[in-house]
Amino acid sequence: MEQVQIGLYAVVALVALALFFDFLNGFHDAANAIATVVSTGTLKPNQAVALAATFNFIAIGVFGTHVAATVGKGIVDPSIVDHYVVFGALIGAISWNIITWYFGIPSSSSHALIGGIVGATVAKAGTAPLIWAGIGKTVAFIVISPLLGMLLGSVMMLIVSHAFFRATPTKVDRWFRRFQIVSASAYSLGHGGNDAQKTIGIIWLLLITTGHMGSNDPLPSWVIIACYSAIGFGTLFGGWRIVKTMGQGITKLRPYSAFCADSGGALTLYLASWLGVPVSTTHTITGAIVGVGSSRRFSAVRWGIAGSIVWAWVLTIPCSALIAAIAWWIGHQIL
Fold it and tell me: What distance in Å separates the CA atoms of residue 217 and residue 199, rounded to the nearest whole number?
């Protein structure tokens, strides 16, 4: 891989920018992990974000770096990447996260970063460096992850409904308030395991292209620790504008249905992380919530809200790519 000559201060600044994106990822996507447990009243907001942040960080010892490798080497040809591309990609992703957070739209931080990488790369060298197999796998999971979350959420609802058919509503509510803490923890573990790796991948790529590590060198432990810490810290602050949309905007959740949604979403994230696919935690939990709602009855889902969320999904990659392309040009003027 061709190495880029760049001052240490610029590398440090870009690493800091990547960690800021990681922080925003946790901040923006905290709602995905805590909205269900907060909206049902099982935990208070501060308790929920503390729980989610803890399991975001614990994921450091559970998942490998398959997703990081996909982001760092599987989306675009690493030889074309320089500090301008990294800058553009991060600004594109950060900008889209801030825009969607401001309007309370649960969009995907993951796909904003992918769109940013693609947009900055195309601005520099056209479409030739794009690795279509990796992009195709990521785009495919825009559809697969919510459908799989929906399926698993629905299956969990059927299992729970059958197992607790004779139980009183009070007993079911009491038990699933406890179970929901377990499922929210499991989902937060999957959130940290999949999403922190995306920032690990971009920093990994930056260090290689600037000559601070070789392409075959082991990933520095400080990168892993810093990224998991940043996403956990972001989650601790919580993206409260999105909690209401995810928690009760799509469908009304009870402790047992929230447990099923979190469990279905967690299983989907574990599978994606194992396959090395950078999926959207937003897509996954939204699909699971729709699944548990529609398993009760079709009209239980507010399809208008769900449809507006889908539009945000469709726009994420092209909008973040456009912003990244502009940021790539700006980067040439200031870096």
Answer: 18
Q: What is the pLDDT of residue 329?
A: 94
Q: What's the confidence (pLDDT) of residue 308?
A: 66
pLDDT given for residue 209 in this prediction:
82
**pLDDT confidence of residue 306:** 63
- In tens, the pLDDT along 39-64 reads 777 888 778 888 888 998 999 888 87
**pLDDT below 70 — which residues of the chain?**
1-6, 31-33, 106, 238-251, 297-309
Best CA proximity match to 292, nearest among 257, 245, 265: 257
Return the closest-CA partner of residue 281 out of 150, 190, 156: 190
Q: What is the pTM of this model?
A: 0.84
The residue to which tokens 């929901």 are assigned: 180
pLDDT of residue 130: 93
d(CA 205, CA 79): 10
| C-alpha angle 309-310-314 in degrees, rounded to nearest 5 | 120
